[in-house]
Amino acid sequence: MFEKVEEYKAMIQSAEAKAAEELEQFRMKFISKKSVVTELFNDFRNVPNEQKKAFGQALNELKDLAQEKFQALADGLSDQSGSTADIGLDMTLPNVPNETGSIHPLTITTNKIIEIFERMGFNVANGPEIEEDFYNFTALNFPENHPAREMQDTFFIEKDPDKVLRTHTSNVQIRLMEGQKPPFRSIMPGRVFRNEAISARAHCFFHQVEGLYVNKNVGFKDLKETVYHFVKQLFGENTKIRFRPSYFPFTEPSAEIDISCFICNGKGCNVCKYTNWVEIGGCGMVDPNVLKNCGIDPEEYTGFAFGMGIERITMLKYQINDLRLFSENDVRFLNQFKGTF
Ligand code: PHE
């Protein structure tokens, strides 16, 4: 046994490697799982007890020696000129290209919306997602007993009953106007939360973009022109727009915004439910009470506001039929937006 150790030691010491194959042969013989050194380790149990200690030591030294020699041989090989080819590396091969990522479809839509409104002189405002009841409801003229405040819609913060996860981005309206002087011309994109069962058409969180314009002599005609311009820029010149009377506590009068279904172009499909109209958001003239709550004189100033669902717009624009796709991070979905900005 001990002779074998000595014999291998000598072989290792005198080993040379002029090419990658020789280095590999060395590795197979002295380092790999099938090496002679491993074999000796396996024979360990046959060594008489009184020799076990000395033999174990000799074996460990042999193993270290093999490792050191292998490293030295490998270093020697890569030091030689032209050695990259010897060890199987072709430095002239073209690089493996980096995979580029893609921008999330909701970000693509949000950026487009911002771009269109910035050209009309709107800037971007942000606000908190965890919000006080006052900004999410009270200042927006929600009556104390309005159903939207109730459990089925709103996530309340358990430890602080005065705080909610905002149910719309309208909270930013109040934060923007509070204690400031008009004019205001901002859009407010962001995430909102509602306590709804998750399905292809509803989720417990989604994104909205809200718009607000407050100045002297702002009328419903300004709201309509702004929405017309926006929709045509985003969906195309031929898109038709319709305003349907509606109700929001914070606007008066209020309307729902529908656009003509460009998926079927009037032929009827299940996206527009064979009506040829699809809803993209709500809007209206800012209720005088909201202005008053922010310290603005409604006799002097008027304004309009609108709010739209970013998921809804993205689903229409890219013909996506399931809301859940936006938050599941499935690369098969996300990869389809490569190169789209
Ligand atoms: N905040 C409303 C919603 O979440 C949308 C809206 C915004 C309506 C502004 C009118 C004016 O549904």
From TrEMBL:
One of its GO terms (molecular function) is phenylalanine-tRNA ligase activity. Its EC number is 6.1.1.20. It is an enzyme of class 6 (ligase). Mg(2+) binds at residue 252. It is found in: Cytoplasm. Its cofactor is Mg(2+). Tetramer of two alpha and two beta subunits. This is Phenylalanine--tRNA ligase alpha subunit. It comes from Reichenbachiella agariperforans.
